[in-house]
Known about the structure:
The chain is an alpha/beta fold and 411 residues long. It folds into two domains: 173 residues, Rossmann fold; 220 residues, 3-Layer(aba) Sandwich (Rossmann fold). The protein has 14 helices and 19 strands. The protein has an eight-stranded mixed beta sheet, with helices on both faces. Strands 2-1-3-4-5 form a five-stranded parallel beta sheet, sandwiched between helices. Strands 6-7 form a two-stranded antiparallel sheet. The longest helix has 27 residues. The protein starts with a strand and ends with a helix. Bound molecules: cytidine-5'-triphosphate (CTP). Cytidine-5'-triphosphate binds next to helix 12 and strand 16.
Amino acid sequence: MPGPRVLLVVTGSIAAYKACEVVRRLQDRGVEVRVAMTRNAGEFVSPLTFAALSGHRVLVSSFDDERPERIPHVRWAEESDAFCVVPASADFIAKMALGIADDFSSTLHLAFAGPVLVAPAMEDQMWRHPAVRENVDKLSARGVVIVQPTAGPLASGRHGLGRLAEPPDVVDAIMEVLVTEPIERSLAGMRVLVSAGPTHEHFDPVRVLTNPSTGKMGYAVARAAARLGADVILVSGPTQIVEPAGVEIVRVVNAEEMRREMVDHTAAADIVVMAAAVSDFRPVAPVSEKLQKSAADAMSWEVERTPDILEELRRLGGRRTLVGFAAETSDLEARAREKLDRKGCDLMVANLVEAGVTGFEVDTNEVVILDRLGGRVPAGPAPKSDIAFTIIDAILGFRQRLGVASREKAG
Length: 411
Ligand code: CTP
């Protein structure tokens, strides 16, 4: 079966070069990409670059087409499954909102009848401008998926909100748009509580004890659960990830705050997934003023264990399914089984951490999902967004087997 086809419109922004990575990553996921560019985009990246990457001619003007027998915007629109603008300038967003069609890309927009996604990139004052806000709201109300920009250094050198979302996040959002077949809402009516990201345990206002977790795996689980119809609350440590749509996010900084929020929300949850990489230690006596390093050449700090959130959630009892994560550097399955028993959870998602390959700070993962009925599901290497669906399948499989086992016991 041929893969899905995406029309990628690149508009004039310094972030245009990131669209090259988006093309590559979409191809890695089996997507065929065709690129159209605005004239301004061509000032940042040459059409030739996208032609070489996509293996297709790149159109900037309708009159560039080598097959003029069929109107190119109509043909391209008919042959594509999604229309995605990456990066989307304020100007192009305004054209889309108003239905202006004064170049090939904007005409293509009007000729296209399927799902549309927009990943904006601009200076923060522009992103905040009421005109841009109104245009973005208009597109959202029309069902256009907006991949929210992130905060960071901007083209002007200023720091602010308006950076194009990272290419892997844009690609995940496009992949979601492409899943057009009605997906089974296997979590409809269920409440899922997920924790994600690292925790920051402060020594002083500018120094923290933490770990390299990015939160990607937990966010992917939250996003997948929401897609499958669950009501999802995501308790997130400090991360730089695009917030998933349709998920309630509770932001926390340290282990104690995460513990409090998880305990508060657990009673109402059917499934709790503890994907956060909670810092195991915290300074015993953090200080509220910045420490001056000139005060000493060496320092030692006393640290203490943070509360074990998973164990506390288990002690709350109830019939909910409790899922832990175990990142190990060796003896993966034996250690994860031991952790599953010790922490008393129902499932344990175990992954081997190999620097730069799987685990922290990368977009792929390879896991083994173990459960307390002896179940074992290996998954990956695969994008974290795919692994998330396998984890949810494993949780539902476990709940089903548990139901059967307890009915057999009762009968
Ligand atoms: N966890 C938690 N609270 C902590 C530490 C960990 O709830 N203070 C959870 C994690 O979210 C994860 C699971 O416990 O779901 C396993 O975390 P991990 O750090 O691998 O296990 P530890 O019990 O801390 O054991 P060790 O670090 O010795 O391997």
